[in-house]
Amino acid sequence: MNKTEEFYKNILKKRVVNREDIKDISKKVLNKKGDGYYYRKYLHKLMNERKVGKIRQGIYYGIPLDQIGDDFQADRYIIGHKIEKGHALGYHTALELHGSAYSAYTRVFILVKKGNRFREFEFQGVKYVSVVNKHDIGHITTLKYKDTQLDVTDRARTFVDCLSREDLSGGWEECLKSLANLKGISVPDISDVLSSYNNKTLELKCGYVLELLSKHSPFYEHISKDELHSLRPRDDWKPVYIDRDVPSKLEKEWGLYVPEKFEGLLRGI
Length: 269
Prior knowledge:
- By secondary structure, this protein is an alpha+beta fold.
- It has helices at about 5-15, 20-30, 35-50, 75-80, 90-95, 155-165, 170-180, 185-195, 200-215, and strands spanning about 15-20, 50-55, 60, 85-90, 105-110, 120-125, 125-130, 140-145, 150-155, 240, 250, 255-260.
- The strands form four sheets. The chain has a four-stranded mixed sheet with strand order 4-5-7-6. Strands 1-3-2 form a three-stranded antiparallel sheet. The protein has a three-stranded mixed sheet with strand order 10-12-11, covered by helices on one side.
- Helix 1 (about 5-15) runs antiparallel to helix 2 (about 20-30), helix 6 crosses helix 8 (about 185-195) and helix 8 (about 185-195) packs antiparallel against helix 9 (about 200-215).
- The protein is elongated, with a radius of gyration of 22 Å.
- The chain starts with a helix and ends in a 10-residue tail after the last strand.
């Protein structure tokens, strides 16, 4: 096996590579560190042979020999993970990776630090979107996926994050139906995530949805009303709207004006 073939084999093994990966491969295979050298002599050659494709500057993917010339699709989750400024995959993407997403989605959400936001881009029909979010609260887990390790928000943080930004979770119907399929949720874990957000409205939303799901989803039957007591509003709490753009009704026990059709979205799950 010559150096070009070995270079190609290493890219294929990783499926998607970024600059750091290519530097590591270059050092391993070629014992070279110069950026221009490995790109010009090996990566560029493999791209000309259509064995490697370019996603965007600094991110590439390997194309298996039996699919060269075909419409080979690079893996969206590994691409999202390989964006160098990314921190973890979240929101609807996390729902997908946890196996609970109600429907398919063509956007991948990458959590980033404030100074690392990147411009949204599209590749092979999928949009990659950076979302600034807190990182010091933890609740990031590593999932094994196709021989690689992906950093993704854990189930509790995914639950809270999706309710904080339902627009990044497919909208209310998709969000609720997906959360209804999310296994392994516990009130203490949810409370731990919420303690870092310090947002009482979000806390009430989580409590209300947990109670709702305990009635509609077998994965939440273990949650009792007593457990949810700590999430309820204070006596002096003034009710707030979940969504001011739709007709709503007051859920006095939770201090929330909830869309009238909210519970109906869970029918048939």
